[in-house]
Design a protein that fits this description.
Layout (H helix, E strand, L loop, with lengths): L9 H17 L2 H12 L3 H24 L4 H21 L3 H32 L6 H24 L4 H19 L1 H4 L7 H6 L12 H10 L7 H28 L3 H25 L5 H21 L3 H29 L5 H30 L3 H14 L1 H4 L10
Helix pairs in contact: 1-4, 1-5, 1-6, 1-7, 2-6, 3-5, 3-15, 4-5, 4-7, 5-14, 5-15, 6-7, 6-12, 6-14, 11-13, 11-14, 11-15, 11-16, 12-14, 13-14, 13-16, 14-15, 15-16
């Protein structure tokens, strides 16, 4: 195959990488779960454990990414290959215990790709003066979610088995990996500090830890330590996001008798996510990233509490759009802010720390609700109100940058 065939534009390659890692490696389990319940007798509790294994893997992957000396390109490449292998393994094996391991490893892989893609693409686009195209990169999550949802819906209607669904998605993931490989096969020729941070010299070269590194950091700007305020805010976002993402479908089931609408809900969620990052990229011409982040969390909070105020299918749909259209916008501007807030040598670690914080918040949310429900009889409304409060309070530190007013 000619090498030039794979030399896709950077934003498109980044889009495909996130579509594979998140749309398939992380979120394809959601539309396949009903098929596994129908064909394999998987219980809802078993499905919950598999989902939790993926969440835990995402946290572990982020922690590993923060510690290992791998470049963003290496994280990206290894993560994508692991997504392909784990997706195929879900279709090849039939033991629940093995599925638990595969979903955990898929979560690890998804975190690696998220950290690697964000670190690499944000820096390269900024170095090339095309930072606005970051919206295209991060829209990949939404398009991946929508694609996986539509494929699974079509397979379910056609009577396909979950094994066939997993194997088909593994083939699709492999195709996405081949196309996204331009990110490490054809690095840019930019020699700015940001580009050098995203594409350091090959491992065969001798690392130089001297005044040249200090000069590189000083030239690029940013703080010389991690921005823990952003890490904290990103964790609050994970806590607030996962509650509606987990429990809004449960509310929809009380209002909608047609299971076909359940199948459509996930692709609609993904489409809203894919479109929103493209819109947010344009909004950055007028508003700062922090303002977009805070506004998105407020909009998400409105979507969270809306079904509690209005008991109708329309309210559920609006809530799903509010959550779906903001969760990747927050991810995009949050990780862009991470890149701008620290020195180049710390960008990967800052992004990995924020990803780990999100994963912790995502794990705590459902667990906290389950404990309060069992011990104190708290209902679903309590969990959603708690999530909304967390999202609103989380906007306060976002709008107060470290050291000086935001000029971003």
């Amino acid at each position: 195959m000619p090498s030039h065939f794979l030399k896709l534009p950077l934003p498109l390659a980044g889009l495909l990488a996130l579509a594979v890692a998140m749309g398939i490696g992380r979120f394809a389990f959601t539309p396949i779960l009903p098929m596994m319940q129908a064909d394999m007798g998987l219980s809802l509790a078993d499905g919950g454990w598999l989902a939790s294994a993926n969440y835990l893997g995402y946290l572990a992957g982020a922690l590993v990414a923060a510690r290992v000396p791998w470049t963003p390109s290496a994280l990206l490449k290894r993560g994508l290959w692991l997504v392909v292998i784990m997706t195929a393994a879900m279709g090849i094996t039939g033991l629940w215990a093995s599925w638990l391991l595969w979903r955990f490893m898929a979560g690890v892989a998804s975190a690696w790709v998220m950290v690697g893609t964000a670190s690499l693409c944000i820096a390269r686009l900024k170095a090339a003066g095309r930072e606005g195209q970051g919206g295209t990169v991060f829209s990949g999550v939404g398009w991946g979610v929508a694609f996986a949802g539509l494929v699974c819906m079509a397979l379910a209607l056609g009577g396909a088995s979950p094994t066939q669904a997993w194997l088909l998605l593994a083939v699709v993931a492999l195709g996405g990996l081949v196309c996204a490989s331009t990110l490490w096969r054809h690095p840019t020729d930019q020699q700015s500090p940001q580009a050098l941070a995203a594409n350091p010299p090959p491992a065969t070269s001798v690392p130089i830890q001297n005044a040249d590194d200090t000069a590189l950091d000083a030239q690029a700007g940013g703080a010389g330590s991690l921005h823990w305020g952003l890490v904290w805010c990103y964790g609050i976002y994970g806590f607030g996001y996962i509650l509606p993402a987990t429990f809004l479908p449960a509310q929809a089931r009380l209002l909608v008798p047609d299971p076909m609408l359940f199948s459509l809900a996930w692709p609609v969620f993904g489409l809203a996510s894919g479109i929103s990052t493209l819109i947010a990229a344009r909004l950055q011409r007028r508003y700062t990233r922090r303002e977009i982040w805070a506004g998105s969390q407020i909009l998400m909070a409105i979507g969270v509490v809306l079904p509690l105020l209005i008991h109708s299918l329309a309210a559920i749909i609006v809530a799903a759009v509010c959550v779906g259209s903001t969760f990747m916008v927050i991810t995009m501007v949050g990780l862009q802010e991470a890149q701008a807030s620290v020195r180049p040598r710390l960008v990967k670690t800052q992004i990995a720390a924020m990803t780990a914080s999100f994963a912790i918040g995502q794990l705590i949310g459902p667990l906290f609700f389950s404990i309060t429900h069992i011990w104190f009889g708290a209902d679903l409304g309590f969990a959603l109100i708690l999530g909304a409060i967390g999202l609103i309070l989380g906007t306060i530190p976002i709008l107060r940058p470290r050291g000086q007013p935001s000029t971003i």
